[in-house]
């Protein structure tokens, strides 16, 4: 019988909160589905769970740690003051507090968030990455010699396909300059422009630390997109149900040759290790017609809602949702930090 734990579920909020904030209204909304599912699973597992949502006051974390004295923090806070760039800073604070927490440490979050840095590291280790260039804000947008068109132009640090639309696919210098300027101004973000890799869009879920388990691979299938149109996972392709229906976009389990699956699993374990990911992650890949695997990005602490890709992959591997949440907690408690 495993010991029951005191678990503090740490969330982020979009407005200032109190230490004993009633979150029942938020938990009924679509935006809080992950928080609701995880919190329900903690109850099912018999853990003593409390929650804290933070917006702009880190002192609440210190107070809550003192009052509740949790054995472990289930970390679902990936922004601070509505800024996703601060997810690693929250984790740094937890590392300094010395309290065990779930998911990835600060180094892994930093390396994965910057799409240019993660690709440089992996390219150095001979993992296929698209040719790319990073254009910081304030830098003149020059003509490109490489990488070659067509390109995908996106914010260098955003997640969940934020800032990616069909206009991100550019085929000329003019379109390129226009899109880079748009992201610099509209998103106030540095840009990565990378070669568009024609192929299948695969999502690989991993969990663990030294030798992570790899769950069955998911694929984003583009059923109604004409053959000559780019197949890209835009923001709307991931999150807009009407748009997904119109273009026949579906997430499903990928049908792949077992030898290829083994190769992809090995590649993803290497990526996970090279980017110092801990806890759990989803790695996004492109698979070309010649079965070449290209790394697109790594997402530590991916969405954990029960009906999203990560949990569905774990379930297919025989790990029911509460068991998945328990395993993430046990991994977090075993992780050496700092």
What does this structure look like?
The protein is α+β, with helices and mostly antiparallel strands and 338 residues long. The protein folds into three domains: 6-102, Rossmann fold; 130-195, Dna Ligase, domain 1 (2-Layer Sandwich); 198-334, ATP-grasp fold, B domain (D-amino Acid Aminotransferase, Chain A, domain 1, 2-Layer Sandwich), CATH 3.30.470. 35% of the residues lie in helices and 21% in strands. It contains twelve helices and 13 strands. It has helices at 24-27, 33-44, 59-68, 87-97, 106-113, 115-124, 173-186, 235-239, 241-246, 258-274, 309-316, 321-334; strands at residues 6-12, 48-54, 72-75, 132-135, 151-155, 169-170, 191-195, 200-207, 213-214, 218-222, 249-253, 280-287, 293-300. Strands 8, 9, 10, 11, 12 and 13 form a six-stranded antiparallel β-sheet that branches. A four-stranded antiparallel β-sheet has the order 4-7-5-6, with helices on one face. The radius of gyration is 20 Å and the shape is globular.
Q: Any idea what the radius of gyration is?
A: 20 Å
Instruction: Name the shape in a single word.
Output: globular
Main beta sheet = 6 strands, antiparallel
User: End-to-end distance, in Å?
Assistant: 30 Å
Give the integer mean of the pLDDT values.
94
Summarize this entry quickly.
By secondary structure, the protein is α+β, with helices and mostly antiparallel strands.
What are the salient characteristics of this protein?
globular, 35% helix, alpha+beta, D-amino Acid Aminotransferase, Chain A, domain 1, 338 residues, Rossmann fold, six-stranded antiparallel β-sheet, four-stranded antiparallel β-sheet, Dna Ligase, domain 1
């Amino acid at each position: 019988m495993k010991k029951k734990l005191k678990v503090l579920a740490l969330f982020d909020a979009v407005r200032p909160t109190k230490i004993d904030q009633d979150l029942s209204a938020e938990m009924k909304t679509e935006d809080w589905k992950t928080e609701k599912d995880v919190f329900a699973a903690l109850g099912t597992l018999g853990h003593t769970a409390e929650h804290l949502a933070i917006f702009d006051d880190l002192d609440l974390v210190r107070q809550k740690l003192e009052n509740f004295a949790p054995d472990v923090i289930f970390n679902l806070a990936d922004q601070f003051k509505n800024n996703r760039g601060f997810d690693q800073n929250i984790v740094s604070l937890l590392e300094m507090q010395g309290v065990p927490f779930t998911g990835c440490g600060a180094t892994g979050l930093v390396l994965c968030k910057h799409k240019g840095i993660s690709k440089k590291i992996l390219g150095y280790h001979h993992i296929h990455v698209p040719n790319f260039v990073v254009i910081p804000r304030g830098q003149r947008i020059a003509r490109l010699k490489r990488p070659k068109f067509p390109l995908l132009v996106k914010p260098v640090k955003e997640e969940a396909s934020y800032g990616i639309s069909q206009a991100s696919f550019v085929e000329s210098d003019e379109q390129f300059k226009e899109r880079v300027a748009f992201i610099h101004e509209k998103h106030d973000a540095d840009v990565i422009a990378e070669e568009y890799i024609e192929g299948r869009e695969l999502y690989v879920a991993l969990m663990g630390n030294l030798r992570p388990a790899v769950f069955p691979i998911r694929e984003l299938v583009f059923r109604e997109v004409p053959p000559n149109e780019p197949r890209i996972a835009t923001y709307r392709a991931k999150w807009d149900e009407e748009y997904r229906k119109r273009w026949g976009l579906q997430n499903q389990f990928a049908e792949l040759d077992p030898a290829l699956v083994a190769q992809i699993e090995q590649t993803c374990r290497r990526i996970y290790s090279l980017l110092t990911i801990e806890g759990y992650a989803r790695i996004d890949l492109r698979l070309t017609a010649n079965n070449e695997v290209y790394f697109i990005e790594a997402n530590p602490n991916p969405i954990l809602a029960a009906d999203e890709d990560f949990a569905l992959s774990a379930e297919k591997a025989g790990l029911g949702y509460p068991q998945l949440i328990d395993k993430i907690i046990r991994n977090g408690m075993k992780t050496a930090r700092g």
